[in-house]
Amino acid sequence: MNASETPERIVVVGASLAGLRAAEALRDEGFTGELTLIGDEPHAPYDRPPLSKAVLSGWLTTDHTELPRVRDIAARWLLGTSATGLDLRARRVELADGRQVAYDRLLIATGTRARPWPQQQGGTLHGVHVLRTRDDADRLRTALAAGPGRVLVIGAGFTGGEVASVCRDLGLEVTVVHRGDAPLASALGGVVGRAATGWYRDAGVDLRLGTTVRALEGDARGRLRRALLSDGTVVEAEVALVAAGAMANTGWLAGFGLAADAHGVACDHTCRALADDGTPRADVFVAGDVARWPHPLYPGQLLRLDHWDNAVAQARTAAHNMTRPPHDHRAHRPLPAFWSNQFGVNLKCLGLPSLADQVVVTQGSLDEHRFVAAYGHRGRLIAAVAADSPRVLDGYASLIEAGAPFPPELNATDGPDRLLPLDAGFAHRPAPVPDRPTVPSIPPAPSLRSVPAGHE
Amino acid sequence: MTTDSPPEELRLVVDLNRCQSYGQCVYAAPTVFRFHGEEVLEYDYAPDPGIRREVERAAAACPVQAITLGRATEPAPLTTESAQ
């Protein structure tokens, strides 16, 4: 068949949130052919956000994180086996166990994995953890429940903060080592980051800013005992969580003709994967954390969003486009939205704060846990972060989408008398957003914006 | 579906971008939903099927309709293949 015909066989590689929601959406779109889901984990699709929170605290076990099936999908499930290769010409996915699965349309939704600690610096020691999967969470929960004398968290991004927060709830001593000047600063900037510093300190976390871990050291039995830090100090700890970001699961695509690298799989605004010459494939689509695409709100770059909301929305758009002729394709252009819960504070974010040059507190106060910070770029409102203010963001959403002036005139009853915009405090000032149409080219590594915007 | 099967398993998920922490679900099904801190909602994705009615009430009561209910598995048997 060619790309304009109705597909008879659709294969989805990746059986997590994006893969499951895409499969359901394909059936909603009227696809009646053979549907195959391939997942490298042995588990039915589950939700990752609780792994770093309610699971670690012991309130939920990981079998209580399974996602609901919202419709029958009559799929063939190939779980516990990973995809290892792709033949674009023959339209076949190769699996680790030697099987080959043929497709008319392919959806790549293989997501990301946690960046591991280097083996030669102690990464293989017993007690060194990452947190991405159900099995990771089970291992880390077991380690925390054993009551270690101190937990070391490497990285004060969203995951690092959530885990440190749970550790304090459990009464465990925690040291957090963070390269930057403030927690969350790469995603939310230095101003909100300084507020987050207060949350860490108030919770009794030993927070080491502007510091890195040189090496992890173990005892004769290969168990973690201590970390050597860049400032020359030593932290004794039996458990370490490496929360140093995520890497796209694209290794299985290397050398098979798609524009895929460690930053993700490039696709166009309709979720069609780009071949390595930059042209979109009519039969291969991408969705979720692994996808990088040109978002019309953020021209001149390819975005990759590690967001729950984006995985669901992009899966639906991809499913629609996989079953329709090109003239009926939709563009994927969501307003980014994500959230995190840490130190008892609910954080909700809209837009991409990391692109801002200025920030202003529009409601509440940074000294309290309850505030809203609005982010501007070149005099336009581009993002908002709400701390313990979950009901206020709807109003900001329409202003952000409209490109309203910054600082925004809100006249909120809990706003300051006068808006005082500050430098947003990003370590690397964002590159100017060019005023030109987006070209579907593949930016060289390092990616201009693999947006460090958190995971939920 | 076999006739001797226990009450059908249910699963749920809350869209926590949409959730505005009104807490109606916590009142309707306090063993399934809870607040941790003032505005932080936590919930059980796989509650006891015996309290399905409470969970359905919680979903219906959500002012922003952030709760999605579904099944644990589809009725059609999964054809998970161990080998070809």
Whole-number mean pLDDT of chain B: 86
Apparent shape of chain B? elongated
What is the domain total for the residues of chain A? Answer: 3
Strand order of the largest sheet of chain B: 1-4
- Rg of chain B (CA only): 15 Å
Number of strands of chain A: 28
Q: Could you report the average pLDDT of chain A, rounded to the nearest whole number?
A: 92
Elements of chain B, N to C (H/E): EHEEHE
Strand content of chain B: 15-25%
Largest sheet of chain B: 2 strands, antiparallel
> Which CATH C-level class of the largest domain in chain A is it?
Alpha Beta
Give me the secondary-structure category of chain B. alpha+beta
**Spatial order of strands in the largest sheet of chain A:** 3-2-1-7-21-20
Biggest β-sheet of chain A: count, sense, barrel?
6 strands, mixed
- In the predicted model, the low-confidence regions of chain B spanning at least 5 consecutive residues are 75-79
Unreliable stretches of chain A (pLDDT < 50, length at least 5) are 430-455
Rg value of chain A: 22 Å
Could you state the oligomeric state of the chains shown?
heterodimer
- Total domain count of chain B: 1
The CATH topology of chain B corresponds to Alpha-Beta Plaits
Protein name (chain B): Ferredoxin
Organism (chain B): Streptomyces sioyaensis
Pfam family, one (chain B): Fer4_15
InterPro entries (chain A): FAD-oxidoreductase/Apoptosis, FAD/NAD-bd_sf, FAD/NAD-binding_dom, FAD/NAD-linked_Rdtase_dimer_sf, Reductase_C
Any overview of this molecule?
- The complex is a heterodimer of chains A (456) and B (84).
- Chain A is an alpha/beta fold and 456 residues long.
- Chain A folds into three domains: 179 residues, FAD/NAD(P)-binding domain (3-Layer(bba) Sandwich); 126 residues, FAD/NAD(P)-binding domain, CATH 3.50.50.60; 87 residues, Enolase-like, domain 1, CATH 3.30.390.30.
- Chain A is built from seven helices and 28 strands.
- In chain A, a hairpin with a 4-residue loop joins strand 5 and strand 6.
- In chain A, helix 1 runs parallel beside helix 6.
- The longest helix of chain A is centred in the middle third of the chain and has 18 residues.
- Chain A is globular and about 60 Å long.
- The two termini of chain A are 38 Å apart.
- The relative contact order of chain A is 0.14.
- The C terminus of chain A is likely disordered.
- In chain B, 32% of the residues are buried.
- In chain B, 18% of the residues lie in helices and 19% in strands.
- Chain B has one domain: Alpha-Beta Plaits, CATH 3.30.70.20.
- About 6% of the residues of chain B have low confidence.
- The two termini of chain B are 26 Å apart.
- Chain B is of the alpha+beta class.
- Chain B is built from two helices and four strands.
- The chains are: A alpha/beta (456), B alpha+beta (84).
- Chains A and B meet through strand 3, strand 23 and strand 24 of A and strand 1 and strand 4 of B.
